[in-house]
């Protein structure tokens, strides 16, 4: 009997209650009271803290779903847009038009302008109006900047107005020459009437055809429009 008691006391390192043993009645009453105790109604009632915590969780879930929906709609709209037509207006009333992909950076427009302006070494900036707002973040793409499907921006030099760069054309001579550059193709040879009229034909004399005007083709780059 003693061995059995020792074995029962060693199981899982927990003390085993033995009927009739020391402290049996006291410990049994304590366990019985714990088993028969019921939670009060207050335990199941929501407190103000519980309510606000649940409300915050619901609001967060709704915000998350709304944000994902907005992102999906934005991605669908962006996929439909394939170009951004940018028009740069210069102080001398010339307008340069160039087409970019919406995902390209504004820096691409800056790089293009440096190749076509008359003074590429002179500092310049672009701005929108109204109100006048200088474009400073060239790392933005045209879509994010809101230049979709196109926009008009204005060119200005950082130099004072009395500077020599402001009095000369803003675009290079090579670019300005493209505005009036035309290629003439050979006109068709006129049809000459026969030197000897046909005496057997009673119809009217043949009318001499006027030469057609030469066809003109533009030799401008596809991106260049004035």
TrEMBL record:
InterPro entries: PUX1, Ubiquitin-like_domsf, UBX_dom. It comes from Microthlaspi erraticum. The lineage of its organism: Eukaryota, Viridiplantae, Streptophyta, Embryophyta, Tracheophyta. Residues 1-15, 209-218 have a biased composition (Basic and acidic residues). This is UBX domain-containing protein. Keywords: Ubl conjugation pathway. Residues 1-20, 182-226 are annotated as: Disordered. SUPFAM superfamilies: Ubiquitin-like. Transmembrane segments: none annotated.
């Amino acid at each position: 009997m003693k061995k059995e008691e020792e074995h029962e006391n060693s199981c899982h390192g927990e003390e085993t209650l033995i009927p009739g043993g020391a402290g049996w009645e006291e410990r049994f009453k304590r366990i019985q009271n714990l088993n028969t105790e019921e939670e009060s109604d207050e335990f199941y009632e929501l407190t103000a803290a519980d309510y606000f915590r649940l409300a915050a969780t619901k609001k967060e879930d709704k915000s998350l779903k709304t944000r994902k929906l907005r992102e999906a709609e934005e991605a669908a709209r962006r996929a439909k847009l394939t170009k951004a037509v940018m028009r740069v207006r210069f102080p001398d009333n010339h307008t340069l038009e160039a087409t970019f992909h919406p995902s390209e950076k504004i820096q691409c427009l800056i790089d293009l302008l440096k190749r076509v302006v008359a003074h590429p070494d002179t500092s310049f900036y672009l701005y929108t109006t109204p109100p006048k707002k200088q474009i400073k973040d060239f790392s933005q793409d045209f879509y994010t900047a809101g230049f979709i499907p196109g926009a008009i921006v204005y060119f200005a030099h950082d130099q004072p107005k009395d500077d020599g760069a402001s009095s000369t054309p803003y675009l290079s001579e090579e670019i300005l020459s493209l505005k009036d550059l035309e290629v003439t193709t050979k006109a068709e040879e006129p049809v000459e009437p026969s030197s000897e009229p046909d005496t057997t034909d009673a119809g009217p004399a043949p009318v001499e055809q006027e030469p057609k005007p030469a066809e003109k083709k533009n030799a401008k780059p596809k991106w260049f429009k004035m």
